[in-house]
Amino acid sequence: xxxNSKLKSIILHTVTPLIIASLVCGILMIVMIKPYDKAxxxxxxxxxxxxxxxxxxxxxGLIIRDNKxxxxxxxxxxxxxxxIRPKYGEMYAVIKSDRLSLDVPVYWxxxxxxxxxxxxxxxxxxxxxxxxxSVISAHEDTFFSELSSLKVxxxxxxxxxxxxxxxxxxxxxxxxxxxxxxxxPSEDTRLTLYTCKxxxxxxxxxxxxxxxxxxxxxxxxxxxxxxxx
Length: 229
Description:
It contains 2 helices and 8 strands. The protein is an alpha+beta fold and 229 residues long.
C-alpha cells in the first residue's frame, strides 16, 4: 500500500467516527429541544409569578387532591351563595365546552405536576364565582390543545362542588409572555383562559387565549341557607 493510500485510510478511519458522532449529537439535541422547552413552559406558563402564592407547607412537598366534582346537581340553586376556597394542589373545578368537547379538570395552583393532570389556576387570581379575574392556563399540547378554536359567543361552563358558572367568550386575545395585561386582577368579573402558541421546535414566546364574561351562576347553598357569610 502506498503512503498516500495509508494516509487516506488513516484519515477515513479517524474522521468518519467523528462525523457520525457529530450527527448523532445533533439529532439528540434536536429531539431534546421540545421536551426541555415543554418542561420550561410548564414551570413558567403562569405569567402571574409575582402574584401567585405557594403552598403553606412548601417544605412538606406538593399534596395533590383529586376531588370528584358534582356533574348534575338536581337540588335548589341560588343566585348568591358560598364560595369554597380550595387548597393548593386541589382539583376544585371542571371546565366544559360543548363546541370543543372540552372537559378539563382545574387545579388550584401552578406546578409542573399539576400541569400534567389538567389546567391550573393561579392563586393570584380569584376563585371561580367571586368578583374579579379568574385566570386559568394549560399546556397547548394537552388540555388546551383546542383552545384556539373557541370563537366569540361560544359558551364555557365551569362546575365546582359549590356551584355551576357559565360564561360567554367575549374576546380572543394574543400576547407576549412578558405582557401581563390580561392576567392581572381586574375590576370586572371575567374568566381568562390561555395557553402557548404552538411551535414545532422549542417553546413560543407567544400566548393565545380568550376572555369570557359571566352569563349565569347557580350556587348549591345560598346565602342565609347555611352558607358562611
